[in-house]
């Protein structure tokens, strides 16, 4: 029975919602980025200023506002909660899977669309990021849609043998511009850089043959500019060019320097994609090599996706900072190529490659061992404390977290997924193999998010977050000593300071403070702050964190000076 397209879209949406929405609020937001972005959105609401981004009630020029606008809508509906901070990406997950199905159907057929959506939903990091409060899922989707509509524009203008392109080239060029504008509003001009680099590589691949009309290219740029000027232009007219100038300077620094602790090895992003995009990364490998093409647009679309992969991975290998989500745009071509492999195998347009099954077995078993080991180690973690020499890590390991063994279900399920998937591959039942590998991995992530991640979070930051939540509504200052965190702003629900001295850490430690001040430090760093400052009184220690308090010198509450 052939289901109507609207019914398929509804089914995909329901399945995606069941995968991505449950447990969004089960675990606290993680430092840095998740809490950072949520705090930007909270302060937008507190300050009633939606054109400029703030953190700690100071201008924060690192990101445009699009994602924060989404979060503010969610927070106005659900409060300043983890659920609200992550809901925009859960919605993005639903939209992304529907988009991939529709794109796959447009270029190939429904089977391919289903494979592509399945590959994205059933790979580790692509799935997990839809449960996060990070910017990248929407950013990547907008870039992909911009490139996709430009490909359709190219096909329509140049007479590719594709009969289902009903719109004229101008329409496709305009839609490409709209989505590019949204991408720039989400994370910045790197979106246009990626887009233009892919177009440039395609231009070289086609031996410098012009495949677009300059007026259409101008239309694309004008539409993208009009979208971005809804913020760039308004902010400049309202507050002058300073904020936008600082934002552009930051974008330049992003590519020319690396942040402390974020300089990885040269092949960093390829390892991240291989492991983090499992199992799609493994099954994408055969598609990098030549296969039999069924049509001109079949070959062309594959080449676009291969070029997108190499542009993203090479570009962010050149960039000094090594951060996982920098190469996350590559997840679109990787999942496409994985779907392409299964599609070609099933249609007997490519020979099955045994090495794909071998690599899938090795990585899948390793992942299952890691997941099971997490549970086994956690159940015996206190026995390992004497063998760990980092004092803060020792404190983390002392957290009172109950593990009952059921958390290992995710690892067992991963192992069963690999075994059954390999069985179907051996039988050359490629459709069943695809559903097993990707569907099973999606369930593994679902159970890991429900059973493992909340307990792991209790070790890493749980005690500090609990302390901050207790400070909500209290007229006080809260800050960290010896390390940086955005958690005091969001989880203590900080109000806009009335005393500018409160931004000065030394004043909070030594000055004539005007209200109680709380400090969070770590056991291996606290002594350098307390040994010569008797006014810092230790409240208690828990899980590697030390909680301190300093009271005003007198009961007369009045602004002090340094």
From TrEMBL:
Transmembrane residue ranges: 7-25, 90-108, 137-155, 175-205, 212-234, 268-289, 301-318, 324-343, 355-381, 401-425, 432-453
Compartmental location: Cell membrane
This protein's record includes keyword DNA repair: no
Keyword terms: Cell membrane, Glycosyltransferase, Membrane, Transferase, Transmembrane, Transmembrane helix
GO CC, alphabetical: plasma membrane
Domain Glycosyltransferase RgtA/B/C/D-like: start-end pairs: 63-225
GO molecular function, one term: pentosyltransferase activity
Main location: membrane
Record keyword Transferase present: yes
Membrane topology category: Multi-pass membrane protein
Alphabetical GO biological process terms: lipopolysaccharide biosynthetic process; response to iron(III) ion
UniProt-recorded name of the protein: 4-amino-4-deoxy-L-arabinose transferase
Species of origin: Chitinophaga rupis
């Amino acid at each position: 029975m052939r289901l109507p397209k609207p019914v398929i879209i509804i089914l995909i949406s329901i399945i995606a919602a069941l995968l991505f929405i449950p447990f969004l609020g089960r675990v606290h937001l993680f430092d840095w980025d998740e809490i950072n972005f949520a705090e930007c959105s909270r302060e937008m609401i507190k300050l009633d200023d939606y054109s400029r981004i703030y953190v700690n009630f100071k201008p924060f020029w690192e990101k445009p506002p699009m994602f924060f606008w989404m979060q503010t809508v969610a927070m106005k509906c659900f409060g300043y909660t983890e659920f609200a901070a992550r809901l925009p990406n859960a919605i993005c997950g639903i939209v992304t899977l529907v988009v991939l199905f529709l794109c796959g159907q447009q270029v190939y057929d429904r089977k391919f669309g289903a494979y592509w959506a399945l590959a994205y939903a059933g790979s580790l990091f692509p799935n997990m990021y839809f449960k996060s409060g990070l910017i990248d899922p929407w950013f990547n989707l907008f870039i992909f849609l911009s490139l996709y509509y430009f490909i359709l524009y190219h096909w329509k203008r140049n007479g590719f043998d594709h009969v289902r392109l009903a719109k004229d080239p101008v329409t496709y060029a305009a839609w490409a511009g709209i989505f590019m504008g949204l991408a720039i509003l989400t994370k910045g001009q790197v979106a246009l850089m990626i887009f233009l680099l892919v177009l440039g590589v395609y231009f070289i691949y086609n031996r410098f043959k012009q495949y677009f009309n300059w007026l259409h290219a101008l239309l694309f740029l004008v539409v993208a500019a009009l979208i971005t000027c809804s913020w760039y232009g308004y902010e400049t007219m309202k507050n002058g060019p300073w904020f936008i100038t600082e934002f552009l300077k930051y974008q330049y620094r992003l590519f020319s320097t690396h942040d402390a602790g974020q300089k990885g090895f040269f092949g960093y992003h390829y390892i991240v994609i291989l492991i983090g995009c499992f199992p799609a990364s493994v099954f994408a490998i055969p598609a990098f090599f030549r296969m039999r093409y069924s049509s001109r647009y079949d070959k062309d679309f594959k080449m676009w996706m291969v070029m997108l992969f190499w542009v993203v991975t090479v570009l962010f290998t050149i960039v000094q900072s090594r951060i996982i989500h920098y190469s996350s745009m590559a997840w679109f071509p990787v999942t496409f190529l994985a779907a392409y492999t299964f599609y070609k195998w099933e249609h007997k347009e490519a020979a099955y490659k045994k090495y794909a099954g071998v690599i899938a077995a090795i990585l899948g078993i390793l992942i299952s061992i890691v997941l099971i080991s997490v549970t086994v180690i956690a159940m015996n973690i206190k026995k390992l404390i004497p063998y760990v020499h980092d004092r803060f890590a020792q404190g983390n390991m002392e957290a009172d977290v109950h593990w009952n063994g059921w958390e290992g279900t995710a690892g067992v399920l991963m192992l069963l997924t690999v075994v059954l998937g390999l069985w179907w591959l051996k039988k050359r039942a490629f459709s069943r193999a695809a559903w097993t590998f990707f569907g099973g991995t999606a369930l593994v992530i679902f159970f890991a998010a429900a059973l493992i991640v909340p307990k792991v979070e209790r070790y890493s930051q749980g005690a500090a977050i609990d302390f901050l939540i207790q400070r909500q509504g209290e007229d006080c200052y809260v800050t960290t000593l010896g390390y940086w965190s955005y958690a005091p702003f969001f989880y203590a629900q900080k109000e806009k300071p009335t005393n500018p001295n409160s931004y000065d850490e030394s004043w909070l430690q030594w000055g004539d403070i005007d209200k109680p001040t709380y400090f969070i430090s770590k056991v291996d760093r606290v002594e350098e702050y307390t040994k010569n400052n008797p006014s810092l009184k230790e409240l208690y220690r828990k899980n590697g964190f030390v909680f301190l308090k300093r009271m005003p010198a007198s009961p007369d509450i009045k602004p002090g000076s340094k």
